[in-house]
């Protein structure tokens, strides 16, 4: 009998399915070894180490495997884990497929470069694993469709790692917007200030003996090894990611999708400036989105609205009764010329998160999708993909939201997917 089946049966018997066992650690302090979630971490760079630290701190979790294509990352992360849990005995892997073969692993976390997100998650669903996957959700729009199809087919749980989704400030902003306090929202301005540091024009180097460069590339086009294309700075290359825009879009668009659920996207118009060196993702990017009755305007500089200049990232909601400006931790509401940071008469209606990682653990146990679930995350990620396509083609695009296709534009539609490199189409 599978581990998942045992837990589901126990949940039913205990009558705690709706609570997702979230009360157990605080009530009892310790969790029986037979009921601990066995997790493997795949991708062990900066965010992968955060995954390890976050989940290692949860008493319901046992970290049983670590995986990275760089042996240095593997060794360093194991040492960090042992400082937290001296008795931990994680198995080390260079190929994530070995982890998916293990029947004793319940769930994985994925913090690889973006171009690997979708294949690893989809293969994990097929293998009966639940997935906590880093943002952005996928490299392409079609990959997101693939992920959703297989997650639902195999009845799996998925949480996207946009950790700010669990923050109290975002929850409160959603309550205020949904209350109608600022009226009908017709425009939202989103921004993230750009890091304009150049990578220069580095040359090809020998692949380090500790790195499996072929597997690092995986489904992406082959290229000779250049250190700047690997590890953290990979995101400045369109073969692997979409620059700071792709990195931060979901962090601030999240509060928009949680509060007003934009529908009927029609037009996408991106204008940007590239780097002068080797990087080819946008250095700065403005994108205008036209939805049914709503405009969302993305910039990489603060908009000219009160309070925006001092915020490196933010959202400014404009309604027919007032405005609301927020970032991760603050908010200000202006109605009839008066600015406040809260409206106490608006009740608390959103259940507060137990923590983003705890929410995932609870969901795996209860078999109920978490807060930042795949269906929600995919819908929120679509505009990011389309903005990058408009940037690459340097023109406005017309979108059919129902069919998820560009209207009369074969060139743009081809960019909704990418054929994996030969030998790396693993799904």
The quaternary organization reads as single chain
Integer-rounded radius of gyration: 22 Å
Task: List the secondary-structure elements in sequence, H or E.
Answer: HHEHEHEHEHEHEHEHHEEEEEEEHHEEH
Derived structural class: alpha/beta
**Domain unit count:** 2
Give the DSSP E fraction (strand runs of 2 or more residues): 15-25%
CATH architecture of the largest domain: 2-Layer Sandwich
Largest sheet: 10 strands, mixed
CATH topology of the largest domain: Dihydrodipicolinate Reductase, domain 2
Strand order of the largest sheet: 14-13-12-11-7-10-9-8-15-16
Outline, from the CA principal axes?
globular
CATH class of the largest domain: Alpha Beta
Spans of 5+ residues with little confidence (pLDDT < 50)?
Answer: 1-29
What gap, in angstroms, lies between the N and C termini? Answer: 26 Å
Helix tally? 13
CATH superfamily of the largest domain: Dihydrodipicolinate Reductase, domain 2
Portion in helices: 25-40%
Q: What is the tally of beta strands? A: 16
What would you note in describing this structure?
The chain is α/β, with parallel strands linked by helices and 427 residues long. The chain has 2 domains: 181 residues, Rossmann fold, CATH 3.40.50; 219 residues, 2-Layer Sandwich (Dihydrodipicolinate Reductase, domain 2), CATH 3.30.360. It is built from 13 helices and 16 strands. It has a 10-stranded mixed β-sheet with strand order 14-13-12-11-7-10-9-8-15-16. Strands 3-2-1-4-5-6 form a 6-stranded parallel β-sheet, with helices on both faces. A hairpin with a 4-residue loop joins strand 15 and strand 16. It is globular and about 60 Å long. The two termini are 26 Å apart.
